[in-house]
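One such shown below:

_____
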Amino acid sequence: MIFERIEVGPLATNCYIIGCSETGIGAVIDPGDEGEIILDKLKNLQLQCKYIILTHGHVDHIGALDEVHAATGAEVLMHAGDAERLANPARYSVLPVDSLKLPGADRLLKDGDKIQVGGIILEVLHTPGHTPGGICLKTGNILMTGDTLFACSVGRTDLPGGSHQALISSIKNKLLDFADETKVYPGHGPASTIGAEKRFNPFL
């Protein structure tokens, strides 16, 4: 399996590229900005991007969606709870958004869905709280948590659609049951593990 992290944009968003080394099929998770860097990485890894998966609809995670989508023709996947954010990104943005035009979602995800990327299966975990349609993605011992769970922190909930109660419930009921060695790859900042978050995260 190919797994790469790219830090993009003014808020240092983690964009992840996951790919199947046997088939050359890949997916981009959260193309937040700097689409040319993401596309160059796909080219260098010799991956055909089949899916663009959005953990949620905030602009720092979708800012390069149009560029990556136009270059790859990949299907756009996100949870139904955040679908409106593609149509009206400025309404939910903490960053200046002038004329960002984004494609709509080709497939609306729900909790428990499976996404096949070559020989890799990504499990969709609906984890509302940061946004109503926030999701995490798990394959093997890799857990991509978007802005739900960070290393020793959690996502903010003071933006439209946020709920601190829902966020903490999502983390405790959906994520902390995974094995301690499960690696946590968040939407910003360094990686962690579920075990470390159980022991050291002051919000949990």
